[in-house]
């Protein structure tokens, strides 16, 4: 029951969290699964206990049936002993009545014989003296009385022994019946207690089963809600991963382009520094400095210094190194981006000012998409001194 209360508290907490739009944490889900497994284990233990009590009940019931059958088998014996006792009592009464009758008959015969012998008849017979009848009769009477007394004693002793045996059997049977009744009452009480306990365990098992079904239903609903919440999050995570992979590839590509641009800028800077060291004050000068293939060339000195204005060829890295003048006087345009030419990254370069005086420079930033790369114009920034690529 404690596990059911704890799981109920956990369900209430999970419902509150779902009501507050906060999904349960994995630890809470694991704890709920542990509580569910504990409840299943308690249900299995309860079922095993119910099976044990059912086996005990069946054994006690069989014992009760055997005791009841023994009692039912002893009842005919008790009835038979009662009948034999009543028969012996009737025989004893009949023998007593017969003894009384014999005594009474013997007394009457003795009285008759005494009256007959008491007459005044004198008969003298000259014969040999015969036997005395009175003595014979007395002897016969004493003999019969002795026989009767012996028979009476034998009958009384037999009756007493039989009565003692019957009384002992009745006493033992009564004790057995009393012990059997006590056992029956005890077994009946145990049966009632086991029946009550079985009913309580069955009701407890039903309640636990219903609680388990409700808990499984609630957890299934919560799991479905959590899975429904996890699905879009997984899709969003996959999209974010795809975007991160694309951005990482784009970053690698931009890093490579930046490295190449820095190398080219270093080369052009070295060329510019060499050109500035070779500068001469008189006008006229070097035409076609950075023009031609990379751009249009200007004069060596005068006007705008290195004035160039060529058109960059299409397909070059950054559209060509077109129009720029750089010198002491500082003209507009430097290593700037030539017109035309689709580039991958980069484009119109930043215009650099002169070596000592400032010039207007413009920086252009470019972005690329996953399908086609196009150059986008950026804002204009002013700077003084030498301008380098960002």
For this entry, give a set of tags.
390 residues; mainly alpha; two-stranded antiparallel ribbon; disordered C terminus
Q: What's the structural blueprint in terms of helices and strands?
A:
Elements: H1 2-19, H2 26-117, H3 133-277, E1 321-322, E2 336-337, E3 367-368, E4 373-374
Antiparallel strand pairs: 1-2, 3-4
Strand-residue proportion? under 5%
Largest beta sheet: what is the strand line-up? 1-2
Q: Runs with pLDDT <50, length 5+? A: 280-390
**Proportion in helices:** 55-70%
The structural class is mainly alpha
What is the CA–CA distance across the termini?
72 Å
How can the largest sheet be summarized? 2 strands, antiparallel
Number of helix segments?
3
Secondary structure: number of strands: 4
Rg is: 69 Å
Order of helices and strands: HHHEEEE
The overall pLDDT average reads 69
**Basic shape:** rod-shaped
Tell me about this structure:
Helix content is 65%, strand content 2%. The protein is rod-shaped. With 390 residues, it is mainly alpha-helical. The model is unreliable at 280-390 (pLDDT under 50). The chain is built from three helices and four strands.
């Amino acid at each position: 029951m404690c596990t059911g209360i704890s799981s109920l508290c956990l369900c209430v907490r999970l419902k509150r969290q779902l009501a507050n739009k906060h999904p349960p944490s994995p630890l809470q889900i694991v704890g709920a699964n542990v509580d569910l497994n504990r409840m299943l284990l308690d249900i299995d233990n309860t079922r095993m206990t119910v099976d044990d009590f059912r086996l005990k009940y069946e054994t006690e019931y069989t014992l009760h049936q055997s005791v009841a059958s023994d009692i039912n088998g002893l009842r005919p014996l008790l009835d038979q002993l009662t009948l034999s006792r009543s028969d012996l009592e009737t025989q004893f009464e009949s023998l007593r009545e017969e003894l009384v009758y014999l005594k009474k008959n013997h007394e009457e015969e003795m009285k008759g014989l005494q009256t007959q012998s008491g007459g005044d008849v004198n008969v003298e017979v000259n014969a040999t003296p015969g036997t005395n009848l009175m003595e014979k009769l007395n002897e016969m009477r004493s003999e019969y009385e002795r026989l009767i007394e012996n028979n009476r004693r034998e009958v009384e002793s037999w009756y007493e022994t039989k009565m003692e045996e019957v009384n002992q059997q009745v006493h033992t049977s009564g004790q057995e019946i009393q012990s059997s009744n006590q056992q029956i009452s005890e077994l009946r009480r145990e049966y009632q207690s086991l029946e009550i306990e079985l009913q309580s365990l069955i009701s407890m098992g039903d309640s636990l089963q219903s609680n388990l079904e409700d808990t499984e239903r609630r957890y299934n609903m919560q799991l479905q809600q959590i899975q429904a919440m996890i699905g879009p999050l997984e899709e969003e995570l996959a999209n974010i991963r795809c975007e991160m992979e694309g951005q990482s590839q784009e970053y690698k590509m931009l890093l490579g382009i930046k490295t190449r641009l820095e190398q080219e800028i270093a080369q052009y800077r070295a060329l510019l520094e060499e050109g500035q060291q070779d500068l001469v004050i008189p006008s006229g000068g070097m035409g076609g400095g950075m023009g031609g293939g990379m751009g249009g060339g200007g004069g060596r000195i005068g006007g705008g210094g290195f004035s160039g204005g060529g058109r960059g060829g299409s397909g070059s890295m950054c559209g060509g190194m077109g129009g720029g003048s750089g010198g002491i006087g500082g003209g507009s345009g430097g290593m700037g981006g030539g017109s035309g030419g689709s580039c991958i990254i980069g484009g119109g370069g930043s215009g650099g000012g002169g070596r000592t005086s400032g010039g207007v420079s413009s920086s252009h930033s470019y972005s690329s998409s996953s399908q086609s790369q196009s150059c986008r114009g950026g804002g204009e920034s002013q700077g003084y001194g030498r301008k380098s690529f960002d």
